[in-house]
Amino acid sequence: MSAPAERAVPGSYRPALRAGVLVGGPLLDGPATVHLVKDTGTGHSFKVGPREAFLLARMDGTRALDDLGAAYASAHGKRLGEAQWRQLLALLGTRGLLDGAPRPAAAPAKSAEPRTLWRGTLRLVADADTTTTRLHRVLRPLLHPAALVPLLLLVLALEAALVARAGEALDATRALLGNPVLLVAAATLLWLSTALHELAHGVVARHYGGTVAEIGLRWRLPMVIMYCTVDNYPYLPTRWARIATAVAGAVMNLLFLLPFGALWLLAPPDEATRDACAALVLLGTVQALAMLVPLPPLDGYQIAGQLTRTIGLFTASRTYLRLALRRDPAARAYPAPARRAYLAYPAAVLLVLAGTGLALWAAARHLLTGT
């Protein structure tokens, strides 16, 4: 690989990216548009501009440099010169992204935090991706629209019933908080729901061709939660696949509530389980919706990033707002899509927080006054 970069690059040379090199779609990064590139073999990742990504996406070993140059000139109105080709191929070779180039050392692994009684992590399975693949094989029929759409309609019906009978659910929650036995049972079920939430991320990512790096437990006493790390999430094939993976956890939380909602709505009025189920549906719904708040590191933040096609949305939006409020000329360098994204995001966060505050006020008012 080094030869083409050191001497005249023949137009018949057919560059190919190494197997396992992933090139993501366009993303806003402040005022710039970038593409993420990752070598899954070494773990190294990079940002490149749209023009470099245009060429990388076509380096599959079937196109000669002359063909790549013609396609580039047609798309961008400019042909790359000999020096530019040498520079690009040398850079790709140095980073080990081209087939046949020496592969650099793997990226240093993130050092695991010391495990203590009070905080730490513990892997639960040796091969998380194989485990998730097996789960996906079993659950795949439920991801088909013929099964998923009716389930989502049942979720919507349950949530509509919860809104209509919110006062009853709030009273049941107050009673639950005064019953230690039922409270422990509800807390255990909600913890199980969080575990299923994490596994749902992994199963849906696997459904779209992703991989799972780890499944384990993370504790910060007194909290102990399960985690499932989806590897290469930004490189899932479509934006819809990434949104579906991010929202899968909250959907799983709501699906988990369906049998308890049925007991609440259909059980005889004099059964004690009825009020416990009403409280569980309310608390479980709050748990699911809290994960969709568009603030880092919650799932809602990942969804917001995909909807706006951005990376580092929180920081980039804050930076742009500061520039705009100061009437800094640098704010004008942001393209229109970036300006819209960085203005829409804080507006959406404020609306969500205002709605949350209003809901909390209404709940507190009911509990205090009964109205």
UniProtKB/TrEMBL annotation:
<feature type="transmembrane region" description="Helical">
    <location>
        <begin position="142"/>
        <end position="164"/>
    </location>
</feature>
<keyword id="KW-0812">Transmembrane</keyword>
<dbReference type="InterPro" id="IPR008915">
    <property type="entry name" value="Peptidase_M50"/>
</dbReference>
<feature type="transmembrane region" description="Helical">
    <location>
        <begin position="342"/>
        <end position="364"/>
    </location>
</feature>
<feature type="transmembrane region" description="Helical">
    <location>
        <begin position="176"/>
        <end position="196"/>
    </location>
</feature>
<feature type="domain" description="Peptidase M50">
    <location>
        <begin position="186"/>
        <end position="264"/>
    </location>
</feature>
<dbReference type="Pfam" id="PF02163">
    <property type="entry name" value="Peptidase_M50"/>
</dbReference>
<feature type="transmembrane region" description="Helical">
    <location>
        <begin position="243"/>
        <end position="265"/>
    </location>
</feature>
<dbReference type="GO" id="GO:0016020">
    <property type="term" value="C:membrane"/>
</dbReference>
<dbReference type="GO" id="GO:0006508">
    <property type="term" value="P:proteolysis"/>
</dbReference>
<comment type="similarity">
    <text>Belongs to the peptidase M50B family.</text>
</comment>
<keyword id="KW-1133">Transmembrane helix</keyword>
<protein>
    <recommendedName>
        <fullName>Peptidase M50 domain-containing protein</fullName>
    </recommendedName>
</protein>
<keyword id="KW-0472">Membrane</keyword>
